[in-house]
Amino acid sequence: MDWIVFLLPVLLLIFLFTSQRKRQRSVQQLQASLQPGEQVVTTSGMFARVIELDDVVAVLETGPGQRVRWDRRAIGGVVHEGARGYLPEPGHDARPDAGPGPLASASDPADPTDNAPGEPGPPARPGDQNPRS
After folding, report:
1. Which of 79, 88, 86, 84 has the alpha carbon at shortest distance from 30?
2. Which domain covers residue 16, as residue numbers?
3. In-domain check, residue 61
4. Predicted TM-score (pTM) above 0.85
């Protein structure tokens, strides 16, 4: 019975150390495999595209022309095509069937400025360039 009390904590420690080593190896493999052009997610949850890499710094593009410098160790994973958070390559539409959105609707009933011909519009506000009469 005494050997079980001694053996259980030892087995727990062995399990913890081996799982930690596996995690370290997978992070090292990820860091070694990073290439410019890949889409990544940082450990804080920001999605971006890798622009430049060196041993310490990763330059990430968060949007067109928006570049930020991050510690390379802050990259948590690679985002593969088709996964949530993946952005299409520049110049490609995210949804090929994307038409005008709800804000581009020609007659939005909730839009007070969209009046039928002959209907009075909203009252003019001070500073309006072309107030309706």
Report:
1. 79
2. 1-33
3. yes
4. no
